[in-house]
Amino acid sequence: MKTTLPMLTGIGSVTPYGPLAGLISAEPLEPHAPTDWTTTELRRAFLVEPFRAASIVPGLKTRRLDRLSAWAVVAASLALRDAGIDLKEVDRSRVAVFCATGFGCAELTGAFYQSAATYGWAGTDPITFPETLSNAPASHVALFHDLRGPNVTVGSKNFAAESALLQAASLMRHGQADLAIVLAGDTLTQAIYEWYETADLLSAACFSNEPVSSASGFIPSEGMVAMVLEASGRPEARAYAALGAGRWAAGGDARAGVRQLLDGDRPEFIFCAGNGAPCAPSPLTCSPREIVGGDTTIFPAQPVASGMGETGALLHLLLALSKHPGPGQALLLGTSAHGGYAALRLEIF
Amino acid sequence: MIDAQKTIVVTGIGVISPYGTGLSRLQAGMLAGQCRLAPATELYPGFQGTVARVSALPPLHDGDRYSRSDRLAMAAARDAVADFAGYSSDIRESGIVMASTVAGLTEIDPEISRGAAEWYRNGGLLRAATYPVSRIAASVGECLDIQGPSCAVSVACASGSTAMVLAANMLLDEAAPMVLAGGSDALCPFTLSGFNSLQALDAEACRPFDQSRKGLNLGEGAAVLVMETLDHARRRGAEILAVLRGWAMTNDAYHPTAPQKDGVGLATCIQRALLMAECSIEEVGYVNAHGTGTPLNDIAETHAYERAFLGRSRPIPVSSTKSYFGHCLGAAGAIEAAITIMAMRAGVLLPTLRLTDPIESPQVDWLRGEPRRQPLPVAMSVSAGFGGSNVALVFGEYRA
User: Fold this and answer.
1) From B257, which residue of chain A is nearest by alpha-carbon distance?
2) For the structural domain made of B246-396, what CATH number should be given?
């Protein structure tokens, strides 16, 4: 395992599979109906079941936090635990937190609007306001673990998770951090669900995680995945993968861009990340064979991750790694129905 | 010997501010000591405060698709590339890193909480689509037909300068030939109400670093800087406005909203940026401070300068240009980077307005009164924000 590339040494997640450290061993999930929300047709979602954060991360107080902030601290803590990192042994001023989110702290933003509707803008809650900021989840991770390195929250239409992963690796490559916790996730609130529904982005045909040829929409999802990247190998560390080169673009020729990245190499595995993609099989969601040829093992996009939209790629990667693809070169390939692409080369151990 | 492929330069600056569109208007207004802060009461019922507004936004063909923050960003981006001789393929392949904290919150009203579906059906659907922060970057991409890597940053009030750091790293990675980096935020009841609830606003014009300071004023605006490697800029014959010599980001990990009282996190950030810039504390001629005017920020920031510039032979010149047009939140870091470069190029140190009784600190040279004219080969812009983030950018003049 000799490499100078950033290594993925720990994974934590709070997803519809529950709060977990490491890989996910469970079978694929069926979505269930958020019955309080459905208005016109039976539509479904992948939701995180409520859990007590302090039972997983002792000392964590979440009463005033947005669910996304609470999940971020839990997922980051589980990822550090999975990596076997003792933060007392680490220079915490060199630990970065890099978080991708599409909607930020949507629940408390909604609560702030609710207080404005009830009491007027002059009567809003000062405790809620700072927790509505999109960088609250990343800052709570830093606060809880006393991490004093770069703390960045990003969004990127369709490719927020991929861009966070690539930019965190970039920080480490340029000596701006020794260790990074990369997070990506979103909560699904009723307001977001109803936006999807009103925009006709959900499909009544999407009852399960099996592709449905007639479906034109997707199943919305929620969760937060954290991954620990380390710049240099601790002797005792075991790594899931090393991160190689990558790129992402808002438009242009995805096939040409990915081929250029691969530079003639053919990865053994392709992990597809269809961000916010329809649950129907579609050439738009992932077209790996056209890019790399026919003898590559393809891990298709999973609806539970696709439903997270621009922050789904870490869950896609986690689900693919959970299938134990074995050692070899891999490509995380993010595509979207709206154009653009993201691609990241990985060496799987 | 400079490594032109690893040297990051700024070759274009676009600004829309309460002074109007363009850096020249901003410069003229600030050099004349004009304050754009004004009393306002109509922003929401019960609000009585002081803000700075952008009075005229360029019209858009399909404006409904864009939030006010988007439109400010697009105006600044157009201004940033206005001087480009030709529309090269480099622009099409450029990256975009745009910061915002407000983004599309400007377009959403509290009625959404009484029934989101109905609010969407009654015209809110498009307005709500501007809510994700990524829309800011996507809007800039749409207006300039840019198809490279696109990313939005939301790190509270340190967002704009964080965008520049991420852009610099993207250029070092050769992820794009150029990157348009900046920030944009519009005034809106959500943030005004939030800061008001925290009792962080000064009802009158703010007084950064003054002993009598009471709080901040909010402003609005956007800045977009064209960044590229020196090698790339030379090849296309671009005018080089400044060199981004060093940068750093740290976090206080201290409190969700309050800065670390002793300024250690910010001081570490400044020291790391200077180390990267290979620049001594003696070489820095000016610091454009975060300087919000809140009691907690300004004293913590003063302590940070005392720590970071400890041992310097003369006090470090510092001013807060938020005293001219308020705190533009996610845009602040980018606008202040533009002002820092403007100060270097004009050879002028801008004073803090209304600074009559500054915080006592023998190690800080508080700039006040008239602008001070002097050569400025190296200057720094500093930002901090809720959540404890700190960013320091070190700019140097370009010598061919």
Assistant:
1) A130
2) 3.40.47.10
